[in-house]
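ARCHIVE CARD
SHELF: 3
SLOT: left
DATA:
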Amino acid sequence: MSELFHVSDKGDIARFDPRPSDYTDHPVVWAIHRARLPNYLLPRDCPRVTFYANEKTSRADRERFLGENRIVVAVEEAWLERIAAENLFLYTMPQAPFALHDATAGYWVSREPVTPVYRDVLTGLPDAIAAHGATLKALPSLWALRDAVLASTLQYSIIRMRNAQGR
């Protein structure tokens, strides 16, 4: 069973063609590993701070940020209604021809076109996030959490903060 996925708001993608990226020297198709999938079960433009512990995370940071949670996906309260209403499409990708791009982020890339193996419709995104082992938290603003997570020993992914409400 493949562990690579692509999440999209488009449900009619029969083939993924490589596209230019600011993060690679050549056009690629992106995929995400199952372990980081909760980071992407949100509307594309939704700002978020996601984090989890690894072997380098201090006990104090585990207690302060995670408590009993394994993975946290924090969003702005202003996005909750849209998150609840949005449907996404989860494309299962074949392992080949992908290569690991960033192990921490769970990013894989292919320089070749990729035909997905399967497509599923995701409804109820908060429940989908929980089903993948993460806790969704809503805050009035993400900036203080972002700054604290950056200064912590946690593993994190901070996505689309350009769309966050101002400090």
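SLOT: right
DATA:
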Amino acid sequence: MMKGILNQVITVLELTFFLPQLLLFYLTNQKEIIINDVQKWVSVFEWKESSDLVNLLTLNSRNKEFRNLYYYRISKGNLLARIFMKIVKPFYPECSSLFIDPSCNIGGGLFIQHGFSTIIMADMGEDCWVNQQVSIGYKDKTGRPKIGNNVRITAGAKVLGNLTLGNNVTVGANAVVTKNVPDNCVVVGIPAYIIKRDGLKVKEELV
């Protein structure tokens, strides 16, 4: 019982330390999309039901990768919140090996699992999932990827160049994608090829 009380006290103190992050949330005009992110992360972690604001504080306190995403959202919003972010950011550092290009447009519900050595430089749809050591971005000057909704890019994968990943696509671990991928496909390999389309096993080259 004593241990449980101590844990609760530590949790309260931890969340109290992160209260400026909550003020940052109140200042921004990006509240809706931030809440979408919070709800996605909570769903993945299968946390017990709590308020969105408590979950926002908890995610900020426990997950540096979430802070990267949070600061990215703030950077897309109004000037007052961006200024306040510059003040509070040194006290709550983000994951230093995770880079999200501020020029990207990313839909709500992005989940980043283990953001170590990961680069996200693409326009993305909603409810996407990115793992560690993933590189998404330019191959040359022709452009960067455009990624649909509900796309999962797993550990070590590379998605490079002016291409499109359709909706409901999964990119397998360490795959290298340099061509368009249709909707509802799973791709693997170097170079990547389709092993599942619309739930059926196939073996198709990307074109």
